[in-house]
Amino acid sequence: MSLPLLVGLTDVTRAGTERIDRGARQVDRRFRRRALRALRGSKSVDAVIRRAWLTRVTDRATYQAQRRALSRARRAAATLTGVRGYEQRNALRIVENLAAGGILTTDRLYPVILTLSRNTDWWTRRNPPRVGRSLVRGADPVTLRYAPGRGLILHQLGSWGRVSSLAGECLRDRAHCPRRRLRTAVNRLLALGVRRDGVLRFESYFSWSGAHAPWISAMTQGTAIQALVRTSVILHSPKDAKYARAALGAFARPAPVGVAVRAPGGRHYVMYSSAPSLRILNGHLRALTGLRDLASLGESGRALELYRRGERAARVELRKADTGAWSRYSDGGKEASLAYHRLVTSFLKDLCDREAGRRYCTATKRFARYVREPTRVGLRVTKRPRAQAAAGVSVWVSKVSTVAVRIRDASGRTVMSRDTTLTRGSHRFGWSAPRKGKYAVQVVAVGPGSPPPGRATAAVKVRRSAAEVARARARAKAKARAKAKAKARAKAEREAKQRRAKAEARKRAQKDARAEAQRTGQSSRTAVPEG
Asked: Minimal CA–CA distance to 403: which of 380, 383, 384, 375?
């Protein structure tokens, strides 16, 4: 007979508990609404962290952990000195500026606070790493890089690149694939993404190359898509394919919301969504690889359409980027460094391997050949320059190279030596020969990757300097004047001598006349008779 009583008591207890829970939830909702109203208009990092907890984006444990991370970062910024303190303060300032600008929303809080926490851990224990060095923790795929003036930055491309590489190894050798590690790594990086208008975006929260935070990269989105679709095939996970298609939306939207911009032939997918005028070939090609993998492995018609739009533009860009001896980094920009030239060559090979077209295979071979070929060198010198006067040496190189210019006189002594790095095109060097004579000009150019050097030589005959010519003319004039004076003196002496001779002749004539007159007079007196 006690059983019905117990059942009734249980019902009463359950009903009371539910009323208490409902009351507690109502109190909690009222508390959260009041707290959110109090935070209205606040743009501090603390307010964003609290708002995330009040709106149930994060739980209490995460809320407390983020507050501790922010407190630790501020203490470190206040106490550290030197470069470590400078970089820690810069890392903290980036987060505060994001919050002040309204960029640090609750869904972006996790990757931003994670980056700040990693900065605090590093700068409180270690000195600055090498610039551009990738920093990871064990098997954690989250990659950071050191950027002076920004501290350690979250490198989404490097992070997804590690996972994509791991998934690629699994595709090649599924028997030895670390599936659990791959699953953990993908989940870890998915947590760093945010959704905007149905698009899964892997954002960067620092300014770079004219791009202002937050920005996304076609290269990063394409690499993430490739990693996700590979993972979906390896682990038979439709969810990962769904994530890949969610990330695909960035290629359908124009920059700065997405990564697509109009380009001759189709669409270019930009490296930095907030800097759409900068069109980098290697980033575009890498994005095409990810789109093609999703189209083939994930059987996505939308990915195939977006790939075809980008591939048509890539044909045009590839022709413009090829200088005939090297590649350009961006559309209309300077030549690429050796690392970026090799990078774009590897991406061309990826497209060639995926049978994207014969042009990519031939471009791969051509770009690889450029690294081995010597630099073509052209040389022109000023014809018949004068000594001690400005002269010119024009050097033309076919690709960016380290160039040595040497000018030697007839005895082999070096009179000019220049070592510099020149980009493709013509460049002028000034020099001055110390004296007249024959000089030999030699140019040696070594391209990136240290291929055989390119050489050019020329001979130049240097005339006397203008000062020497002036002195010679002055000496000639002085000699002419002296000669004229000597001639005038000789003439004067001749004339004087002639005058003296004439005077003496006149004197002699007068004397002879007088003598004759005297003789004539005497004769006359002798001839007259006396008396």
From this structure: 375
Convert the pLDDT of each residue in 411-430 to its tens digit.
999 999 999 999 999 999 99
Helix (H) or strand (E) holding 175: none
Q: How confident is the model at residue 465 (pLDDT cuts 50, 70, 90)?
A: confident
3-class secondary-structure state, position 325: coil
The model scores a pTM over 0.70: yes
Residue keyed to tokens 């290697």:
282
**CA dist., res. 63 & res. 54, Å (int):** 9
**Region of poorest pLDDT, from 29-38, 137-146, 260-269:** 29-38
What confidence score (pLDDT) does residue 10 get? Answer: 52
CB within 8 A of 4, min separation 6: which ones? none
CA separation for the pair 358, 356 (Å, rounded): 7
Mean pLDDT of 306-334: 96
Largest pairwise CA distance in the chain: 231
Q: What backbone torsions phi and psi does residue 503 show, to the nearest 5 degrees?
A: -65, -45
Q: Which pLDDT score is estimated for 23?
A: 61
- Name the residue among 137, 317, 166, 287 with its Cα closest to residue 230: 166
pLDDT for 37 equals: 83
Question: What CA–CA distance (Å, rounded) separates 234 from 237?
Answer: 8
Give the model's pLDDT for residue 3.
Answer: 43
Average pLDDT, integer, range 195-205 = 94
For residue 158, the model assigns a pLDDT of 95
Measured in residues, the chain has a length of: 531
> What is the C-alpha separation between 158 and 138, in angstroms, rounded?
15
| C-alpha count within 13 angstroms, C-beta hemisphere, residue 182 | 25
SS3 346: helix
Please determine, for residue 68, whether its predicted confidence score (pLDDT) is greater than 60.
yes
Rounded (10°) angle between helices 82-100 and 109-123: 170
d(CA 282, CA 270): 10
Report in angstroms the alpha-carbon separations of 61 from 32, 118, 194, 446: 17, 19, 21, 59
Q: Determine what percent of the chain falls in helix, strand and coil, rounding each to the nearest 5.
A: 55, 20, 25
Q: What's the pLDDT band for 339 if we cut at 50, 70, 90? A: very high
Place of tokens 């003496």: 504
Distance CA 255, CA 253 (A): 7
Q: Where are the alpha helices (DSSP H) in 102-208?
A: 109-123, 156-172, 179-190
What letter does residue 55 receive in the DSSP assignment?
A: T
Q: Where are the alpha helices (DSSP H) in 338-384?
A: 338-353, 358-372
Alpha-carbon distance of 362 to 342, in angstroms, equals 15
Q: What are the C-alpha distances in Å from 304 to residues 73, 80, 227, 245, 251? A: 45, 52, 17, 12, 11
Residue 45 tokens, joined: 């990092």
3-state secondary structure 412-470: CCEEEEEEEEECCEEEEEEECCCCCEEEEEEEEEECCCCCCCEEEEEEEEEECCHHHHH
Percentage with pLDDT > 70 across the chain: 93
Percent of the chain with pLDDT over 90: 75
